[in-house]
């Protein structure tokens, strides 16, 4: 191999090295900082870029896409002296490559430590109940503080989320008992409301039933009064007819009234539940004679209505019963 070939190979190799050091291709989502003799001069955007050979070089390769950083779990003491374990995640994006590259050393580590310290500060200023039920408020406060702190670094904090929050075991058990008691309370209240509605429905039903019964009694009383009125009218008419018969000198009319009252009194005496034996202190012949007189009156009334001459009444001889004889009550 001659000297010319060797020289040509060395020149070609130097040309390739020079070309690689001068031409830089920046991928999408990245930015490169350019340093001239160690001093920052410019930033290369995505695409192709050119550097001055032997003078400029690429300083930092910055990721301009949104990144997710995991905040490690740590124990925090709340305002009411309760120990809780908290961890979180933070979403950041580098907006200024030069500031992120030269204003802070190890940007992800710095943001993680900043989140941990502010998380302890925010959670420590709140009571346990507030920490458990106000995660959105914690996220908002952390975002405001950390975003303001990372602004000089050229970083935008988009979101901070509490990933896990674990209270002590005894507090967890107490919360479980409290939740159970609350659910039992709701069940009792619901059951009481159901019983209340059922009682109201039963009262409404009883009210309607009482109203209907009262209306029924009212209608029955009206019917009874009407029946008594008609009965009184009939009684008055019968009394008038008997009075006319008495005025004409008919003795059977008087016997009719006496027999009627006699029969009614005897029936009441016989219906008495305490009465085992009925003692009739009078002759039954008088009662039979009175009934016969009633029959004669009915016959006379029929003859008068038919226009025929009345026939003389024939009274049968009534059988006599010894006075004081026992007569069994009617069934």
Tell me about this structure.
The longest helix has 79 residues, at 169-247. The protein is an alpha+beta fold. Helix 3 (107-124) crosses helix 5, helix 6 (169-247) runs antiparallel to helix 7 (251-270) and helix 7 (251-270) crosses helix 8 (284-306). It has helices at residues 3-22, 97-102, 107-124, 128-133, 135-150, 169-247, 251-270, 284-306; strands at residues 23-26, 30-36, 39-44, 47-50, 56-63, 67-77, 83-94, 155-166, 278-279, 326-327. Mean pLDDT is 79; it is low at 308-331. The protein is 57% helix and 21% strand. The strands form 4 sheets. The protein has a 3-stranded antiparallel β-sheet with strand order 3-2-5. A 3-stranded antiparallel β-sheet has the order 6-7-8. A hairpin with a 5-residue loop joins strand 6 (67-77) and strand 7.
Distance between the termini: 159 Å
Query: How many β-strands, per DSSP?
Result: 10
Helix content: 55-70%
Quaternary structure of the protein: single chain
Radius of gyration: 61 Å
The class by helix and strand makeup works out as alpha+beta
Residue-averaged pLDDT: 79
Strand order of the largest sheet: 3-2-5
Large-scale geometry: rod-shaped
Question: What's the helix count?
Answer: 8
Largest sheet: 3 strands, antiparallel
Which blocks of ≥5 consecutive residues have pLDDT under 50? 308-331
């Amino acid at each position: 191999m001659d000297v010319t070939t060797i020289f040509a190979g060395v020149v070609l190799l130097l040309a390739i090295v020079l070309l690689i050091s001068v031409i830089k291709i920046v991928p999408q989502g990245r930015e490169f900082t350019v340093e001239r003799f160690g001093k920052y001069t410019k930033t290369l955007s995505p695409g192709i870029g050119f550097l001055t050979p032997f003078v400029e070089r690429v300083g930092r390769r910055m990721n301009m896409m949104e990144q997710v950083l995991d905040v490690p779990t740590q124990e925090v003491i709340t305002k009411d002296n309760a120990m809780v374990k908290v961890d979180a995640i933070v979403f950041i994006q580098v907006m200024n490559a030069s500031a992120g590259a030269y204003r802070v050393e190890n940007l992800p580590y710095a943001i993680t430590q900043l989140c941990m310290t502010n998380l302890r500060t925010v959670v420590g200023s709140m009571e346990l109940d507030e920490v458990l039920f106000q995660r959105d408020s914690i996220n908002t406060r952390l975002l405001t503080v950390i975003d303001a702190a990372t602004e000089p670094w050229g970083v935008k904090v988009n979101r901070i989320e509490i990933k896990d929050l674990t209270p002590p075991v005894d507090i967890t058990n107490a919360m479980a008992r409290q939740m159970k008691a609350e659910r039992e309370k709701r069940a009792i209240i619901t059951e009481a409301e159901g019983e209340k509605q059922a009682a109201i429905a039963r009262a409404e039903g009883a009210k309607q039933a009482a109203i209907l019964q009262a209306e029924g009694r009212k209608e029955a009383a009206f019917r009874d009064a009407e029946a008594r009125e008609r009965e009184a009218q009939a009684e008055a008419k019968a009394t008038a007819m008997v009075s006319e018969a008495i005025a004409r000198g008919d003795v059977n009319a008087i016997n009719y009234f006496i027999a009627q009252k006699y029969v009614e009194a005897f029936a009441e005496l016989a219906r008495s539940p305490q009465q085992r034996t009925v003692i009739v202190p009078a002759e039954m012949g008088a009662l039979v004679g009175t009934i016969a007189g009633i029959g004669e009156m009915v016959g006379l009334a029929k003859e008068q209505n038919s226009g025929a001459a009345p026939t003389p009444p024939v009274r049968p001889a009534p059988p006599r019963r010894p006075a004081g004889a026992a007569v069994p009550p009617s069934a």
